[in-house]
Amino acid sequence: MTNIREQVRRRANLTCEFCGVTEADTGGRLTIDHFRPRTQGGGDGLENLLYCCVRCNQYKQDYWPMGFDDPSLWNPRLEPASRHFLELDDGTLHSLTPTGAFTSKRLRLNRPPLVAYRLSKRRRAEEIRLLTRYRDLVCLLDRLHRQMAELVEEQQELLEEQQLLLRLLLDE
Ligand SMILES: [Zn+2]
Asked: What is the percentage of the chain residues whose pLDDT exceeds 90?
């Protein structure tokens, strides 16, 4: 199991596959979740295991649809989040499907600390975008300055040449 745990962890890039928080964000290892709970016949194979933060795991518990009318949970290993959720500018998740709505409710994907987390991630991404833009501008300015310096030098040479010609003309 140890090796499988490590494989699941790395496959998920050390990130909760439901809500997106990372080990670095939480300051520790996350948990391994059986998407289909063992109590409901779920296996220990890689295809049934997910890397999952403590909160999501707690809220999910051993949910599994029993009847035809029971809603399904979103399986992050089978479908991208974008199929079921849309992240809004205010950091909340808007559900696009019944599966998304049920998962969001069950796992409390709009819990305030998670919304705050998404917002801070957005802010960080925006900061990085602005910093990159700023760096590009500085590079551009630097290039312009160098071109300008070359032009000034050329102009200086031309002036000197002109002066030389003038002197030759006047001497004649
Ligand atoms: Zn989570």
From this structure: 96
